[in-house]
């Protein structure tokens, strides 16, 4: 479940996001009211940006391996 619209709108409206918004890039995040842990990153890669799914690339696979969690648990 996404925490849109408030969080999304705040990220999208932040002036620091202007350069990315001008490129047509949307904020990439995933949040749930039931999440027990939140991981925050910056500069999502090309694949994450294209799929709008954070950590959806090699760095995410490595992170999930380090955390010893499955994709289902992570997302």
C-alpha Rg (nearest Å): 13 Å
Secondary structure tally, helices: 5
The helix-and-strand class reads mainly alpha
Tell me the distance between the termini. 10 Å
User: What would you call the shape?
Assistant: globular
User: Could you give a short account of the major beta sheet?
Assistant: none
Write down the overall mean pLDDT: 86
Q: Estimate percent helicity.
A: 40-55%
Number of strands: 0
- How many domains comprise the coordinates? 1
**Beta-strand content estimate:** under 5%
Provide the low-confidence segments as ranges.
none
Pattern of helices and strands: HHHHH
Notes on the structure:
The model has no long low-confidence stretch (mean pLDDT 86). The protein has five helices and no strands. The chain has one domain (6-74). The protein is globular and about 35 Å long. 44% of the residues lie in helices and 0% in strands.
Which terms summarize this structure?
single chain, about 80 residues, mainly alpha, globular
Summarize the structure.
The chain is an all-alpha fold and about 80 residues long. The protein has helices spanning about 5-15, 20, 45-50, 60-65, 70-75. The model has no long low-confidence stretch (mean pLDDT about 85).
Which helices and strands occur, and which strands form pairs?
Blueprint: H1 6-13, H2 18-22, H3 46-51, H4 58-67, H5 71-74
